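Sample A.
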Amino acid sequence: MDIRSQIAMVFHLDKCIGCHTCSIACKNIWTDRKGAEYMWWNNVETKPGTGYPSKWEDQDIYKGGWVKKGNSVLLKGAGKIKGIKGLFHNPNMPVLEDYYEPWTYEYENLFEAKEGDDQPIARPVSLITGETITPKSGPNWDDDLGGSEDYAKNDVNFKNISPAEKEAMFHLERMTMHYLPRMCNHCLNPACVASCPSGAIYKRGEDGGVLINQEKCRGWRMCVTACPYKKSYYNWNTGKSEKCVLCYPRLEAGEAPACHQSCVGRIRYIGVMLYDADKIEAAAASDEENLIANQMDIYLDPNDPEVIAEAIKNGIHESTIEAAQKSPVYKFVKEWGLALPLHPEFRTLPNLFYVPPLLPTMAFVNEEGVYETTTEHFWGAIEKSRLPMSYMASLFSAGNEEIIKIVLKKLMAVRLHRRSETVGDLPEKETKDAIRDAVLDKETADEIFRLTSLPLFDERFVIPAAHREEAIEMLESASDYKGSTGFGFKVPPKRGL
């Protein structure tokens, strides 16, 4: 076993209210400067929708992520050789229009306009050219299904949904949406790291964060192509690539990243996961039906004495192990099996997991066109969700609908249990049957409810302070170890340099 530590995250989608506070907090700290106007390292999308940049999920266009090749994986559209061939022309590169041309308004006209009969206006002007423009897209242009005919219907995740199902979804009585906050996944098998010709991108040994060395970056932009989530950006002013840094200065002090700290809906959880780096290549090269199971197998039980011994032997600090034992992410991902990776078929093994939304299943339309919410139909409502199961499977389980059904059954069982406990209007047998069918017990259901609905700040964010004196970057050049996934030493290097 080659045990490493990784800061991982969980986003609970039923709790996201789409306020974009996380996006603004990130932008005000990291991208409020020239050349970064169009960058949203943290953004919130409306699903169904095309996302940001437009249709980022369609790897037939962008060629991001990895593809299975025998017992290994290869970069789909980037890499050193492919990058050289496409050095002066990369057709897989997103262009500015795929993001949007950033703009502001001529606010001074509102204040300085001469007195007259006409109402002064503030025309939109480009932040890049300064010329007047007509905005045509934005970071969440299809917010709240606001352009469903033009945007939501072009969602890539509809590709496995029949035209009749797709059309039915946009009838008023069946229309539904949920929010999808996104940021860099700080993957275990990051395509951006493997694709960089200059070795500027590396994975930190102490927390697994993926960073770009701005001094080494030469603006090749292979990372933009390689990242299937399109979370690496090119700064047109500096000529460098930039991305989410996981707010590592805050992490090193044991504080939550800005987007997590500011989250109004309290949907975000962050904690340490211990993983076996020896299993990464095999997990990434799994058949699609086994991708999630094999990724889950990478993460180790932090309470296992053998794991603890190997972790200490590998140089992981005791405080990090203690944080892993208290990690809310471990509970959601491994212990309860409620959180899933976004698009596991990209094979980057992301460390950001999502609890799928249950809300669209809470009510459904019967044959008379009336909403049904009676408890006797709750289990049936999961299969008859207004949001087709195949759609959510396309997002979170590489098309495996059974995995989604298992998660939603667990979430529904917790709700039925809590309703029985607080309202008391459900037959005891019905509640027990729901918990049994979901392979839960009352104690676990209460624990899930507690961490979902009533967690304290320190329960959502369990972050050990960094031990920089033991970090690889203090002693060695991380670029020397490029080619492996994750950086660190099985045998700790000699100190005292």
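Sample B.
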Amino acid sequence: MSMIRVKNLTFGYEGSYENVFENVNFQMDTDWKLGFTGRNGRGKTTFLKLLTGQMQYSGSIDASVDFEYFPYSVQNPEDFAVDVIREIAPAAEDWRIHRELSVLGAEEALYRPFAQLSFGEQTKILLTALFLRENLFLLIDEPTNHLDEEGRRLLASYLKKKKGFILVSHDRAFLDGCIDHILAINKKNIEVQKGNFSSWYAVKEMQDNSEIAENERLKKDIRRLENSARRTSDWSDRVESSKNGTLNSGLKQDKGYVGHKAAKMMSRSKSIENRKIKAAEEKRQLLKNVELQKELKILPLVFHSDPVAELRNVSVDYGTGQAVCSGVSFSIRQGERIALKGKNGSGKSSILKLICGEDISHSGELRINRQLIISSVPQSGDFLKGTLREYARSRGIEESLLKSGLRKMGFSREQFDQNMENFSSGQKKKVLITASLCERAHLYVWDEPLNFIDVISRMQIEELLLKYRPTLLFVEHDSAFCENIATKTVEIR
């Protein structure tokens, strides 16, 4: 057993207004199965890169283990998948490669070019390489993105047997299945807590609710004290001004008595003011780490006919003669939220692209009215460049509406001035989702919308969909989300 000790860690990107980390101190056991969570843009990936020595920082990170970062960078994506694995894990024997791929259900991808695989298949290839590397402390950065449910289950089972790793993930069920500690980047601090994600979140909810209640009590106390101080001060002033007057009997006022009385009132006023200041100071100590879930909005359109779209015996082959998927039949009725399910590489994304009007080689019958307005969210936001203003203009949506939605999703105003290519993957995905929410459409088509998205934002999106009930076709491997949102499931085989 050994420790990883972080002392006075400070780091900021060049040109940034604020540091990502400032005088951060904590320690962790190298035997812990550590889940790493926090809202997008808080520095989770940055911290992993600091551990591996990829960037300069002040302070110290002391560790007696060698770190292994996932996902791996693929230098030659045109190579066969097996060659990519051999490059990452050169000591691995062929029989072990086949065994690990068989466990993950990805043997068919082994002798295909890496670049031609689906995102999910690429993830499985890289996970195979990870499983073949041994005796290293793993830094695993969002491995479940693009990974199907079976792949997530197998990965959780593998990690549960491992000793010592840091796992960045926003999949609640996945985290609960394989971790024993939580490392959380909050708004104002970093904390380490024993337990899984659910136990940590339950404690956080209790703390947040307690602070919110205490904040409301202090707000009321401050208002009451302000009114009391104002009344006492007015009373003191009136008493003081009466020193030079006369009583109704014609006798002169006792100036000493009146002055004493006024001083007593003034002292009382000062005491009330001090209590108010103390209450205000206590209030300022609250809510620093409370993650407020502000309500998102969407205004879907109602289509004049139903169903809004229909597929009959559709097959997709990309012109190769070998079907990616075949015999796909289902209809989309208004108000339905349909989860499209299937293994990685089964053609789910191809079906979504086909419905969105992309030119994809297929057979069968696809019925979509030309007047149907569709808003889509693609799997990846890597193509995003330039400013939010430019992007809003290109999508034909109001810039203020886009930025208002992003603020509710945890963006700071400072981030609005950055170019999108500098955003984290989670922030890019939030831009895509928020832009879709800003569009009025009959049908929303979302391809793995929760990839890279933090837990708080996932809950916001869930609440939005349950409240406004848009017609939605989506692919998502987060089991908790699908269970809460889907009104119908269509399996692609």
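B remarks: The mean pLDDT is 85. The radius of gyration is 30 Å.
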